[in-house]
Write a structure and sequence with these properties.
- This protein is an alpha/beta fold.
- The chain has three domains: 236 residues, Phosphoenolpyruvate-binding domains (TIM Barrel, Alpha-Beta Barrel); 85 residues, M1 Pyruvate Kinase, Domain 3, CATH 2.40.33; 111 residues, Pyruvate kinase, C-terminal domain (Pyruvate Kinase, Chain: A, domain 1).
- Helices cover 36% and strands 23% of the residues.
- The strands form five sheets. The chain has an eight-stranded parallel beta barrel with strand order 1-2-3-15-16-17-18-19, surrounded by eight helices. A seven-stranded mixed β-sheet has the order 4-14-10-11-12-7-9, with helices on one face.
- Strand 2, helix 2 and strand 3 form a beta-alpha-beta unit.
- Helix 5 packs parallel to helix 7 and helix 10 crosses helix 12.
- The longest helix is centred in the N-terminal third of the chain and has 18 residues.
- The radius of gyration is 23 Å and the shape is elongated.
- The chain starts with a strand and ends with a strand.
- The mean pLDDT is 91.
C-alpha cells in the first residue's frame, strides 16, 4: 500500500490493543490533537504508540496538532440539542449552567455582527446571529445538531486576529520536543512567516528534526498557498475548516489546487476531515464517502488522515480496515506523470533516479540521513517499490507519511557503508531476492563522488 493512513488518537483509541490493531490493519502514523485532552492523556497515547512500534518491530510516526489561533467553545455541562429555528445565547464565559453556549473570547464579541453565520463541528452546525450585546450574542439555529464542549467555531467570511502561535501552543511545542514527537501540525497558518516563526521556535528549543505540517484551513492560507508550501515540510488539506470558510461546492476545487501545488513543489500532502464520517456511528461507510476517498487517491495524495472516526468514533479499527480496502482497490489509478518538478538540481537528480529505476522495472532503495532524497523521489510517484533506509529513527518516522516509502532501520557510519547495509537488510527481510534488480542510491552531497549502484546476481 503506497498511500499512507494516519489515524487520530482519542478516547476511542486510548488502549494499547486498539492501537496495535490499527497498525496491523495499515496505520503508519498517528496524530494527537492538542486541542483536546491533557498531557497525562497525550503521554499515554505516546506510550502506546512507542510500545506498539517496539513489539511489532515497525517504524511508526506520531505528531501533534497545535490549537493555533482558533476560537473554541468553553465547557458545556450537558450537550445542547438544537432544533432548527431554536433561539439561544452565546455568552462570554468559560462555562455556563443555564443552557447558554459558553464562548470565552473577547475578540469574537468585538467582530461579530447581526446577520453573520457562525459554524462549528466542521460545518455540521450553523447559527445565524440575530442580536449582539456586550459579552452576549443571540443566535438562531439554522440546522439541528448537538453542541458539546471545546468545539472550534468560525464566522463565515471573517478571520480572527489571533497570533498563529499562542502561549498555549508554546507549552504544547515544548511537550512535543520533550517527547520526541515527529511532526507538529501548525493550525490556522496564514502565511509563510507563520511557518518560519515555528521553525525558529524549534531551533531555539534545540531541535531541527521535527517536521512542520502546515494545515490549509482558512482564507489567508489559500491566498498565500505557495509561500506556505515552500516553507513547510508537509501540507494538510483541512477540509472541515475550509468547508466553513468557503462554499461547499468549492471544496473539491480547493482540494485539487492544494494537492497539485504541494506535489509540484515536492512536499508531501495529506487529506483530512470527514473522510469516513458516517463511521463515527456506523460500521460501514457510504458510497459517497468511498467515492470521495477514491477521488483523493487519484489526485496523488501521500496520505489520508482519519480524525473523529478513530478519535471518538464507535468503529476505529473498522474505519482503518475500510480505508485500507479503498486505497488498495484504487491506488493504481493515481495518474501522476514522471516529469521534473523544477530546475533545482536535487529534484532533477531525484527525477533521474526515479526514471532509471522505473525504466528497468527494479526496486529502489535510498540510504538517507534526513529523508529529503526519499521525499523528492516519492514526489514523482514512480510505479515501483521504494525503500528508505537510515540509521536515524527520527528520519524514518517522518517518512511514514510519505507516499510509497517503506522505512527501514540500518546501522551505518557513512553513505557508502549505508548503501551496503541497506542492501543486506533488504535481503535479510526478504524484501528482495539476490536475483532481483535493485537500484541503490543516496542524495547528492557536496563533497566526494556520488554512487548509484544497480545490484543483481547473475
Amino acid at each position: 500500500m503506497k498511500i499512507k493512513i494516519i489515524a487520530t488518537l482519542g478516547p476511542s483509541t486510548k488502549n494499547l490493543k486498539t492501537v496495535r490493531e490499527m497498525v496491523l490493519e495499515g496505520v503508519s502514523a498517528f496524530r494527537i490533537n492538542f486541542s483536546h485532552g491533557n498531557e497525562e492523556e497525550w503521554n499515554k497515547h505516546l506510550k502506546n504508540v512507542r510500545k506498539t512500534e517496539e513489539e511489532l518491530r515497525m517504524v511508526i510516526g506520531v505528531g501533534g496538532d497545535l490549537k493555533g489561533g482558533s476560537v473554541r467553545l468553553g465547557y458545556v455541562e450537558e450537550p445542547i440539542k438544537l432544533k432548527q429555528g431554536m433561539e439561544l445565547k452565546m455568552v462570554n464565559k468559560v462555562e455556563d449552567h443555564e443552557g447558554n453556549i459558553p464562548l470565552p473570547n473577547d475578540e469574537f464579541y468585538n467582530i461579530v455582527a447581526p446577520g453573520d453565520v457562525i459554524l462549528m463541528d466542521d460545518g455540521n452546525i450553523s447559527l445565524k446571529v440575530e442580536e449582539v450585546r456586550e459579552g452576549e450574542v443571540k443566535v438562531r439555529a439554522l440546522t439541528p445538531g448537538k453542541i458539546t464542549s471545546r468545539k472550534g467555531i468560525v464566522i463565515r467570511g471573517r478571520e480572527f486576529n489571533i497570533p498563529s502561535i499562542t502561549e498555549e501552543d508554546l507549552n504544547n511545542i515544548k511537550f512535543a520536543v520533550k517527547n520526541s514527537m515527529d511532526y507538529i501540525g501548525l493550525s490556522y497558518v496564514k502565511s509563510g512567516e507563520d511557518v518560519k516563526k515555528l521553525r525558529k521556535i524549534l531551533a531555539e528549543e534545540g531541535v531541527e528534526d521535527i517536521a512542520i505540517m502546515s494545515k490549509i484551513e482558512c482564507v489567508s492560507a489559500v491566498k498565500n498557498l505557495e509561500e506556505i508550501v515552500r516553507e513547510s515540510d508537509m501540507i494538510l488539506v483541512a477540509r472541515g475548516d475550509l468547508g466553513m470558510q468557503f462554499p461547499l461546492e468549492e471544496i473539491p476545487i480547493l482540494q485539487h489546487k492544494i494537492i497539485e501545488t504541494a506535489r509540484l513543489m515536492g512536499k508531501p500532502v495529506i487529506v483530512a476531515t470527514q473522510v469516513l464520517a458516517s463511521m463515527m456511528e456506523n460500521p460501514a461507510p457510504t458510497r459517497a464517502e468511498v467515492t470521495d476517498v477514491a477521488h483523493a487517491i487519484a489526485e496523488g495524495v501521500d496520505g489520508i488522515m482519519l480524525t473523529g472516526e478513530t478519535a471518538v468514533g464507535k468503529y476505529p479499527v473498522e474505519a482503518v480496515k475500510w480505508l485500507r480496502s479503498i486505497i488498495e482497490a484504487n491506488e493504481e489509478r493515481t495518474d501522476v506523470k514522471l516529469k521534473p518538478i523544477d530546475d533545482d538540481i536535487q529534484k532533477r537528480f531525484a527525477h533521474s533516479i526515479a526514471v532509471l529505476a522505473e525504466s528497468i522495472s527494479s526496486k529502489l532503495a535510498i540510504y538517507t540521513q534526513k529523508g529529503r532524497m526519499a521525499i523528492r523521489i516519492a514526489a514523482y510517484r514512480p510505479k515501483i517499490q521504494i525503500y528508505a533506509a537510515s540509521n536515524n529513527i527520527k528520519t524514518l518516522r517522518k517518512l511514514t507519511m510519505v507516499w510509497g516509502v517503506k522505512p527501514i532501520k540500518v546501522e551505518a557510519n557513512d553513505y557508502k557503508e549505508g548503501l551496503e547495509a541497506t542492501y543486506q537488510e533488504l535481503l535479510k527481510n526478504k524484501y528482495i531476492s539476490e536475483y532481483e534488480t535493485v537500484v541503490l542510491t543516496y542524495g547528492l552531497i557536496e563533497e566526494g563522488e556520488h554512487i548509484v549502484k544497480i545490484k543483481r546476481k547473475v
